[in-house]
Amino acid sequence: xxxxxxxxxxxxxxxxxxxxxxxxxxxxxxxxxxxxxxxxxxxxxxxxxxxxxxxxxxxxxxxxxxxxxxxxxxxxxxxxxxxxxxxxxxxxxxxxxxxxxxxxxxxxxxxxxxxxxxxxxxxxxxxxxxxxxxxxxxxxxxxxxxxxxxxxxxxxxxxxxxxxxxxxxxxxxxxxxxxxxxxxxxxxxxxxxxxxxxxxxxxxxxxxxxxxxxxxxxxxxxxxxxxxxxxxxxxxxxxxxxxx
Length: 244
What we know:
This protein is of the alpha+beta class. It has two domains: 2-75, Roll (Ubiquitin-like (UB roll)); 82-219, Aldehyde Oxidoreductase, domain 3, CATH 3.90.1170.40. 27% of the residues lie in helices and 34% in strands. β14 (207-213) and β15 (216-219) form a beta hairpin.
């Protein structure tokens, strides 16, 4: 059978390609894909404990059975078109974010509070001068995960509406990379929901950033995936996102 494999972030650089088609034996599972890349790509095996795997845009475990035509994503820890959601919007764009318009569209006369998280590109990371950032994503899956976060946060915290927007491509110092707006009758739950969304987004939504410095460029270390989607053997602890 044939499957399509997508590689992102650091994995794309190491492999020298962003996608390819593999021929596997009938009955193959996700673990067989990991084994293939461990044998063919230097450094890949050492990265497996921190990876997440997707099949058909859903997170998958190593024993997940594969079918002919499946699309498998190899996802390093995330840094992280348009789809509307009820009482808010979820958007991925490549142009500068119009923050005021984005927040204004969400607001309603019955709201007592709108809490906004504005993730801004800063000019340094761990003592190195940052020139600019570049974001890429597994877009279809990222939108699906962002929409799920918006929906779950409304249920979990009882807020009225949630909007999330993330930008891809090259971003300059001072520009907004991610904007989250939460509207509610009461400020407390709006603050809680906004914090939960950005913290969860950075761990689960497949968006990566590359940092460009005066002396080179690197893919930023991401936060570990949650245990339920991380490959066995993953370790905790990661370098903070530059928007922290």
